[in-house]
Amino acid sequence: MSIRLLVITLGIIILPSSLQTVNGDEVVDDQYAYRRVEAIKWSPNGEYLAFVTYDYLGATDDWNNTMLNVVDYSSGQLKFSRRLDTDTKVTVVGISWSVDSSMILLLTHIGEVKWFEVENGNFISEWSVSPGSTPFVSSFSHSFDGNFLAVVTSDDYSTTPYQNRLQVFNSNAGDIVYQTQLPGAVGVTSYSWMAWSPNGNQLALLSSNAHLFVGNWSSGILSINRDFDLTSHNVASAIVYGGWGPDGRLLALTSGNAQSQLGIFDTATGDLVFNLTQSADAGKLIWNHQSGMIVAQILLPPERGSKLRVWDSQTGDLLGENDYGQYVDAFDWHGTSGIATGRVTALNDPNYANTVRISDQILQS
Prior knowledge:
Helix content is 0%, strand content 51%. The chain is an all-beta fold.
């Protein structure tokens, strides 16, 4: 079987003269300027890949030139690039798609929801999860049927624990369907991950104090009726990555550190079913329902985010790994089109030239 490999490179990073100083501070030497891939997502039909990039210019907390990019997989060509930060700086929390793959949804860190046409990148509409305020978005999930967008925000930074609010919106119109206050936990991003189950009947949330909350969704009401303390399973103090299995009962969860394994948990009982082999330090993960495999990024030394490992979700056996040679900023996996990885592009360093790489084989020989 032939392997299809696409590499998409964007234009070189240019430091505009107007940005040689930021807030009165000189920008660090050019060698520290780089482009990052902030988020990446396949369209449901596997025909397009959307990813967001931004340029870091060497000054503390300074980024510039946030771009939405879409690649046509069949041609391997960049379909369009659209700048998002023409007026104010934008950090994108995540990307999603309409069910028919014709529109792209972006959610920013301050709760702006933006829709764009995939055909030409034209802006369609925008709404806010919290009109009149600037909340901090810690996690979100777009339902598989495209109807609902669930968002966790923290609005009040004056109290501890922080006040965390879960809201469910009609994803197109922005109307609030449901909202509730969540149990408090230490830290602003106290609910770092959540996701709708494949059938849309449940919503799972992970808190920074190693609790798994699972609720049933019916007729616009979420009943959070399961609260599992996972510290008894030697889970570290925070669980920050997860992925639903195809049956809507099992979850793959990991803390992204050496103290815990990537484990499969039963959401009905909270029990650990089994740990995956050689999965310490596993970070962001994807459970691919078509292949029955789980892929996760290995974060700590010596891998330092450059490796993706692949497991059999039925047995927990390690099937192999890909070493990309440099840190993987973001990745996504489509069962038909393949694995897409976004990596750092550093100025003046030819070893960091490839921004986005697509391969139709999850494991390379």
